[in-house]
Amino acid sequence: MTNPEDHHNCDQHHNHKNGLTLAFWLNLLFSIIELIGGILTNSTAIVADAFHDFMDAGAIGLAIVMEKIAGKKRSDKFSYGYKRFSLLSAISLSIFLLAGSITMLITAYNSFINPKEVYSFGMLWLALLGLAVNGFAFIKIKNGGHGHHHHGHHHGHSHNSQSIMLHLLEDVLGWAAVLIGSVIIYFTGWNWIDGILAIGIALFIGINAIKSLIKTLKVMLQSVPEHININKFKVELQRIEGVVDIHDLHVWTMDGDYNIGSVHAVINDSNPTTKQDILNKIIKLMENFNIQHPTVQMETTNSNCKLLTC
């Protein structure tokens, strides 16, 4: 007997997936149109915005691939599963975008030295198209990713679609800037406005790429996830009745969403029922601290760690 609720979730997930896939293709195709349009209109700002849109297509594509790969079961070779594979694509995307933004800055700088004619009328049309495409993708994802955050299980997806909606919103603002810029150029003939816009967009891309790179490298280097306060965590663990000492406490994250923790707990009672009780409390606390994969090793005070390399 299937639960109607499950069916509803399945539909939701399907819509959400379609929304993502559509937004991905829209952004990807559109960034190619922009690149050509930017070259034709001689506008550095539009070429920079093409990179910006490509960045978002990349982010969306990554989210789709992530959901695919992360869903793969663990294997003998990858006992933690495949969640970390998404970090590889995140790193390469960041490096690519960083290179892109540096190129944009150089191009914009050159456009100040050797001013060039910008076809503001073409810019205007591209900007309107940009607003339409991104607005449409935004609405698609907003409606598709609906109703996800009610189920703990779907946390990752809603988190994903929220960050993508933010990307698309940034795109809309980027295009609004290009639109205003093109109108000003049209009426005043100030071609340097194009360079200013390009610098703004390139800096925006560069800063975000660096942020993303740092975040990904922190996960790779197994740093404690930002939202987990390990000192507070240790204090709370030691507060549990029966726990004498806590050592070898480690918390890290697989991909930024799925957290792993391990701990050695020294307890003063070898009574099996008390032991089980303490263990349950420790695991409950670890779950409260947003650790999805807890590992606990218990030692009694009298065994005094003789057998263990503590």
Automatic annotation (TrEMBL):
Residues 20-221 form the Cation efflux protein transmembrane domain. Its main location: membrane. It is found in: Membrane. GO terms for molecular function: zinc ion transmembrane transporter activity. Keywords: Ion transport, Membrane, Transmembrane, Transmembrane helix, Transport, Zinc, Zinc transport. Gene3D superfamilies: Cation efflux protein transmembrane domain. InterPro entries: Cation_efflux, Cation_efflux_CTD, Cation_efflux_CTD_sf, Cation_efflux_TM, Cation_efflux_TMD_sf, CDF/SLC30A. It comes from the Bacteria. GO terms for cellular component: plasma membrane. The chain crosses the membrane at residues 20-40, 87-112, 118-139, 172-190, 196-214. Residues 225-299 form the Cation efflux protein cytoplasmic domain. It is a multi-pass membrane protein. Belongs to the cation diffusion facilitator (CDF) transporter (TC 2.A.4) family. SLC30A subfamily. This is Cation diffusion facilitator family transporter. It comes from Zhouia amylolytica AD3.
